[in-house]
Design brief:
single chain; mainly alpha; Multidrug-efflux Transporter Regulator, Chain: A, Domain 2; three-stranded antiparallel beta sheet; 10 helices; 61% helix; elongated; disordered N terminus; DNA-binding transcriptional MerR regulator; DNA-bd_dom_put_sf; DNA-binding transcription factor activity; DNA-binding; DNA binding
Length: 256
């Protein structure tokens, strides 16, 4: 039988708030047509039925808010259905969203910087060549506009201009940058592999995560994220110590 859908409040008095279709759609900020579509796609659990009336609860409203958040993040409805299938409640899905954010949100805190062509010519002079610009583009550090460039990292841009000021050619800086990027990618691969294999192995299985596990993993990742930067900085400093001694000890001994 068709369910009755109107705007009357469900129950006066005690108990959790319940909604009829129009009320639930209004509370979620969607149309009743959209809500019915989600229901047909089995994105919502069945309502509680009382005769011909369908009642929806807070879990349904939470699920609709989760769906809205996932759509905003770029997920398709098919992907949302799979993600929701991994959990038994809106809370489970919300925890999975939090875990996803902890994994894929930026691990760096670099801020971009934009420079006009006049500023670039002042900083780099005749080293502002097509070849050097193309190399910077190829490394993924800059985007070019009619007015100038935008560099993805103010700190890297400042370091580049400081090295140029010390007399090191821009082409040499870019060559070192390409090699450093390769080594940084290799270090990131090691650290990501450690997290994947030791913490997130359960995500690769077909079984749903135990209740609360996604939230627990999110908390772990939140604590571990800054450790990646600490490890990278410490390892690089120690590597510099080793390389400097290996490279220059012999040179300095010959100069004595």
């Amino acid at each position: 039988m068709a369910e009755i859908e109107n705007d009357q409040v469900g129950e006066d008095g005690a108990g959790p708030r319940e909604y009829r279709v129009a009320e639930l759609a209004a509370a979620a900020g969607i149309t009743t047509r959209t809500l019915r579509f989600y229901r047909e796609r089995k994105l919502l659990p069945p309502p509680r039925r009382e005769g011909r009336i369908a009642w929806y609860g807070q879990a349904h409203l939470a699920r609709l808010k989760v769906i809205a958040e996932l759509l905003e993040r770029g997920h398709t409805l098919g992907g949302i259905a799979e993600l929701i299938g991994a959990g038994e409640s809106g809370r489970d899905v919300a925890e999975l969203i939090g875990l996803e954010a902890a994994i894929i949100s930026p691990w760096s805190d670099e801020t971009p910087v934009s420079l006009g062509w006049d500023e670039l010519r002042t900083a780099f002079g005749d080293q502002l060549t097509e070849a050097n610009t193309a190399e910077s583009l190829a490394q993924g550090y800059i985007t070019v506009t009619e007015d100038g460039i935008t560099h993805i990292s103010r700190r890297l841009m400042d370091a580049t201009t400081a090295l140029i000021a010390e007399g090191i050619p821009l082409a040499a800086v870019l060559d070192a940058s390409r090699k450093a990027q390769e080594y940084a990618d290799a270090m990131a691969e090691v650290f990501v592999g450690l997290i994947r294999d030791q913490l997130l192995a359960a995500l690769t299985g077909e079984e749903p995560l135990p209740p609360g596990e996604a939230a627990h993993l999110t908390e772990q990742l939140t604590r571990i994220r800054p450790l990646a930067r600490t490890v990278a900085d410490a390892q690089f400093g120690l590597a510099l110590d080793r390389r400097v001694h290996a490279e220059y000890d012999g040179v300095l001994r010959r100069r004595r």
